[in-house]
Structure formats: structure tokens, C-alpha cells
Design goal:
Blueprint: E1 3-8, H1 15-25, E2 29-33, H2 35-38, H3 41-48, E3 56-60, H4 62-74, E4 79-83, H5 86-95, E5 102-105, E6 115-118, E7 121-123, H6 125-136, E8 140-143, E9 152-153, H7 154-157
Parallel strand pairs: 1-4, 1-5, 2-3, 2-4, 5-8
Antiparallel strand pairs: 6-7, 8-9
Helix pairs in contact: 5-6
């Protein structure tokens, strides 16, 4: 499988994704799955600026990603599929018939209605339920901000 990492991170493409995960995994592409960013040329350009020229950046809506995921997984190149929220990743997992096997929760930061679970993961009740839905669908869910950080399993994360 050439998609090396499925990650949820509300900062989307940033240093932890590009350097922290991308370099150790030897990635050649990043797929940012976000309906809003897909429709915004200036946001796409902004995210592209944070990635070295040899790494391809693909912007896709959830619907486009559902159709394109088999091709990304069949690619000889390694990549990361990134969503900005749990809901988007849940849509991908549900719509791809088991293609999403593991999901990494990177950064989901504080906002009204969320409670701290880790220093970099704040979740609403709805997001907790979505993570449980991912797990119920057979997806291994864990949180880990960087590859050298401690991996936290779902049950420990949701305590």
C-alpha cells in the first residue's frame, strides 16, 4: 500500500506533516482532502508553499478522494492522505469499503465545545462518537503528533 499514513490534523499541511512524518516515511505526495480548500486557489497555493517541489500536493474534495483513493494506494510512490477533521476521515473510511485501515490523530485543537484528551487533541462529544464509529468499522485509531512521540491508542485517548 503506497498511502503510508491517513492523518487527521486541523492545521492541514504544516511542518509536522511535511518534515515530521513526510521525511521519515519517504513520501512523494500529500493528498489534502478538504471540500473548502479544494475550492480555494489561494489556500491551495498557501499550502503548496510549505512543501518541497519534489513532493506532489493534491487537493481533493471528499467525493473526489473516494474515487481516487484506489489509484493512490496502487501507486509505486508513498503518500499521506490528510483531512482537517474527523468527519472527513470517517466519510473516507465509510466510502472506501475497508481501504482505510489505520488513522492517525495528529492535531485537533481547542475550540468551544471540545474537551482536552491530550495536549494536542481536543474533542467534542460528536467527534468522540465519530472516532468510535471509525473503530467499529475496523479502523485502528491512535493519536501521535510526531513519529518519535508516544502512540496513544483510542481507548486511552478517550479516557
Amino acid at each position: 500500500m503506497s498511502v503510508e499514513l491517513f492523518r487527521v490534523d486541523d492545521r492541514l499541511i504544516h511542518g509536522q506533516v511535511v518534515v515530521g512524518w513526510g521525511q521519515p516515511l519517504g513520501i512523494a505526495f500529500i493528498v489534502l482532502v478538504d471540500d473548502e480548500v479544494r475550492g480555494s486557489d489561494w489556500e491551495q497555493e498557501l499550502y503548496r508553499m510549505g512543501v518541497s517541489p519534489e513532493v506532489e500536493v493534491v487537493f481533493a474534495s471528499v467525493a473526489e478522494a473516494l474515487g481516487a483513493l484506489p489509484g493512490w494506494q496502487a501507486s509505486e510512490r508513498r503518500g499521506i492522505v490528510l483531512t482537517g477533521d474527523i468527519a472527513g476521515m470517517l466519510q473516507l473510511a465509510r466510502g472506501t469499503n475497508g481501504a482505510v485501515k489505520k488513522v492517525n490523530i495528529g492535531g485537533i485543537h481547542y475550540r468551544e465545545g471540545r474537551r482536552e484528551h491530550l495536549r494536542y487533541v481536543y474533542l467534542s462529544d460528536e467527534e468522540v462518537q465519530s472516532l468510535r464509529s471509525l473503530a467499529d468499522a475496523g479502523v485502528e485509531v491512535s493519536a501521535q503528533d510526531v513519529p518519535t512521540g508516544t502512540r496513544v491508542g483510542l481507548e486511552e485517548l478517550l479516557r
